[in-house]
């Protein structure tokens, strides 16, 4: 627990949307009468037909149902574009910064955004996409990614973005998972000076999907080679001919807006479904309040639109607020470790939102990369994706923020749609490493893991759950409502179970301690250990595999694999390499194993259950306190694994 807290400057607090007194007042009101609170907050959204009912929520296991503003109608694209045209048509909506700094940035005004989104909507409609149809987006970080999202929203089609770093297999699984009609991709994705052959990946994926799936190809580099007539469609040619008008569809508040696949502790990734009215209201509200966004500010979230952070805080939240949002195609270290700060200076960024893994990587390069640039426009810094260690927090605060920019450490999830725990920049004295306070309407509880009882004492530690709902909560797992209920509402009845552990300190502030399930967080990317395991055992030479996380200086967690080979197979460094490549092809480079230990046997209970607790300890190089190993079928395997462990400190 740190001694130091960091209060906002008096100047920032004086101009902030929410100061300390207002937070207390609004938070209390949001809990005392959520219906009244959200009725008022939802007025920021432009409704076609206003809602009369605020919410209808049941967390009862077997009967979970979440509805917000259910009799209202609206269109999200109209909220993000059309309603701004009269007042800010010529204002920049999106600043696009390409991977290569010598290529020109683009400034896309709200008028241009409108025209481009309508063209994309017309192209999709020509391909037969209508209300409720699914469209998979597999694009680089280019403006067309935002056009595609908003075009789907305009039509009332449901988008599912697949991160461009995912493999063809992962793409195919997601296309099939939601029966998509169209996949939107680009020829190539430039990133960090290299090019990922996106269209070639899509070609491979489409071999494993229905023949009717169309492939809409956006030109990015011009590096396209193959073309399948009748299936592939040239976006740029069609858009050139398309009308720049498209009537936004009237959608019900509870119609799905998008699906986003995310990893869980069991089985294959699940399609998280977000709805329309509640999602846009909450994304916009949190964007404005948490980053203290003011008219004219330039907002930059460095995430990829393939993750929920990019959905809510590059596209939907900022554009619903009529903001200027920056979209960056590249990586923090290309062409050098000063790129983030060069972009901040170049575009006069006011709010900057990134992940701890990027901060740690840049911290290692030294402060001079930051000091070369004028960062005087920065006002608020944000972090998301994993717990931030105090050392990285302090560096962010001192070197990047020069002690003048409050840091908002925002805890949330794909499932939550928007921030749930975070300090507000003008209201709270922050603590390095703490996600601090619940946002309006959010009621966190700390439960005793075994009994599920609420802990009311301070300080305390346990599992983090949420009481009650908020508008941008996920509604279901696509095609599998039972899995939705089982994952989030069955372990602790009556609560939403987030899967994270937390500590609440004597002041009532929250500290996230990490996942309590078999999900690991590698460079802020969520991964199910089960997914990596099933990729490994799909290899012909692998008999069995167990995967756990271990502390990694830059990535937060690294991927540690215990692999038992088929009898007759010889372990070798070559085979390690082969398995690494194998997992990259099965899932994608983000799932690449860091360490592979050959395990002649795995520690199992007599009933055959792998004792992951022990494997985690060995991977952490902390095997002094393994706990009780007497229930193991063969306690001897543990000594062997310790003897040959990979991660010696
Ligand atoms: C972790 C990303 C600590 C957490 C928005 C959560 C965090 C998972 C933080 C969700 C934070 C996210 N501090 N941990 N500020 N933010 N996490 O779905 O374990 O990709 O459950 O959503 O990331 O990851 P997801």
Automatic annotation (TrEMBL):
Residue ranges of every copy of the AMP-dependent synthetase/ligase domain listed in the record: 82-470
Domain Acetyl-coenzyme A synthetase N-terminal: 23-80
Keywords from the UniProt entry: Acetylation, ATP-binding, Ligase, Magnesium, Metal-binding, Nucleotide-binding
Domain of life of the native organism: Bacteria
PROSITE patterns: AMP_BINDING
Cofactor(s) required, per the database record: Mg(2+)
Entry annotated with the keyword Ubl conjugation: no
HAMAP family: Ac_CoA_synth (MF_01123)
Gene3D superfamilies: 3.30.300.30, N-terminal domain of ligase-like
Assigned EC number: 6.2.1.1
EC top class, as a word: ligase
Reactions accelerated catalytically: acetate + ATP + CoA = acetyl-CoA + AMP + diphosphate
N6-acetyllysine modifications at: 609
Residues bound to CoA: 191-194, 309, 523, 584
Keyword flag Zinc: no
Binding site for ATP: 385-387, 409-414, 500, 515, 526
Family of the protein in this entry: Belongs to the ATP-dependent AMP-binding enzyme family.
Residues given in the record as Mg(2+) binding sites: 537, 539, 542
Protein name (database record): Acetyl-coenzyme A synthetase
């Amino acid at each position: 627990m740190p001694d130091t807290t960091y209060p906002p400057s008096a100047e920032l607090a004086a101009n902030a949307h929410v100061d300390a007194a207002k937070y207390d007042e609004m938070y209390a009101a949001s809990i005392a009468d959520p219906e009244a609170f959200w009725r008022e907050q939802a007025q920021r959204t432009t409704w076609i037909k206003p809602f009369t009912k605020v919410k209808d929520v049941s967390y009862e296991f077997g009967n979970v149902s979440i509805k917000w503003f259910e009799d209202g109608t609206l269109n999200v694209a109209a909220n993000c574009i059309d309603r701004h045209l009269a007042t800010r048509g010529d204002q920049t909506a999106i600043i696009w910064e390409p991977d290569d700094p010598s290529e020109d940035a683009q400034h896309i005004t709200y008028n241009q955004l409108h025209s481009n989104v309508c063209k994309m909507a017309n192209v999709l409609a020509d391909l037969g996409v209508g209300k409720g149809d699914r469209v998979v987006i597999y694009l680089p970080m280019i403006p067309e990614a935002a056009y595609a999202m908003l075009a789907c929203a305009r039509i009332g089609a449901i988008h599912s973005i697949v991160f461009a770093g995912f493999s063809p297999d992962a793409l195919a699984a997601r296309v099939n998972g939601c029966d998509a009609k169209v996949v939107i991709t680009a020829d190539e994705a430039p990133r960090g000076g290299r090019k990922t052959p996106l269209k070639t990946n899509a070609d491979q994926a489409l071999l494993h999907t229905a023949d009717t799936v169309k492939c809409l190809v956006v030109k990015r580099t011009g590096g396209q080679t193959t073309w399948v007539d009748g299936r592939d469609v040239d976006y740029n040619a069609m858009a050139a001919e398309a009308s720049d008008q498209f009537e936004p569809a009237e959608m019900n508040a509870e119609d799905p807006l998008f699906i986003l696949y995310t990893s869980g502790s069991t089985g294959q990734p699940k399609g998280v479904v977000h709805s329309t009215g509640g999602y846009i209201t909450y994304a916009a509200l949190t964007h404005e309040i948490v980053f203290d966004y003011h008219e004219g500010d330039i907002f930059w979230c460095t995430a990829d639109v393939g993750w929920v952070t990019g959905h809510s805080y590059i596209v939907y939240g900022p554009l619903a607020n009529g903001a200027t949002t920056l979209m960056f195609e590249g990586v923090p270290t290309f062409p050098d470790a000063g790129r983030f700060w060069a972009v901040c200076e170049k575009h006069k960024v006011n709010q900057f939102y990134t992940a701890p893994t990027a901060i740690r990587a840049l911290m290692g390069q030294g402060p001079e990369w930051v000091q070369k640039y004028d960062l005087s426009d920065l006002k608020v810094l944000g972090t998301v994706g994993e717990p931030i260690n105090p050392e990285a927090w302090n560096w962010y605060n001192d070197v990047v923020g020069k002690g003048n920019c409050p840091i908002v450490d925002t805890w949330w999830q794909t499932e939550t749609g928007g921030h749930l725990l975070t300090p507000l920049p003008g209201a709270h004295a922050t603590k390095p490493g703490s996600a601090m306070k619940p946002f309006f309407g959010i009621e966190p509880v700390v439960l005793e893991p075994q009994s599920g009882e609420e802990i009311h004492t301070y300080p305390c530690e346990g599992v983090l759950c949420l009481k009650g709902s908020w508008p941008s909560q996920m509604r279901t797992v696509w095609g599998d409502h039972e899995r939705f209920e089982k994952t989030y509402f069955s372990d602790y009845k009556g609560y939403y179970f987030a899967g994270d552990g937390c500590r609440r300190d004597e002041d009532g502030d929250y500290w996230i301690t990490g996942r309590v399930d078999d999900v690991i967080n590698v460079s802020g990317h969520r991964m199910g250990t089960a997914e990596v395991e099933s990729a490994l055992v799909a290899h012909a030479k692998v008999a069995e595999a167990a995967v756990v996380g271990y502390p990694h200086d830059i990535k937060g967690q690294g991927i540690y694999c215990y692999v038992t080979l088929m009898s007759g197979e010889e372990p070798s460094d070559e085979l390690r390499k082969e398995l690494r490549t194998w997992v990259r092809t099965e899932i994608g480079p983000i799932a690449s194993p860091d360490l592979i230990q050959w395990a002649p046997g795995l520690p199992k209970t007599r009933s055959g259950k792998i004792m992951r607790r022990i494997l985690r300890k060995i991977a952490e190089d902390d095997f002094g306190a393994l706990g009780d190993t007497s229930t193991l079928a063969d306690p001897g395997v543990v000594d062997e694994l310790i003897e040959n462990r990979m991660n010696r400190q």
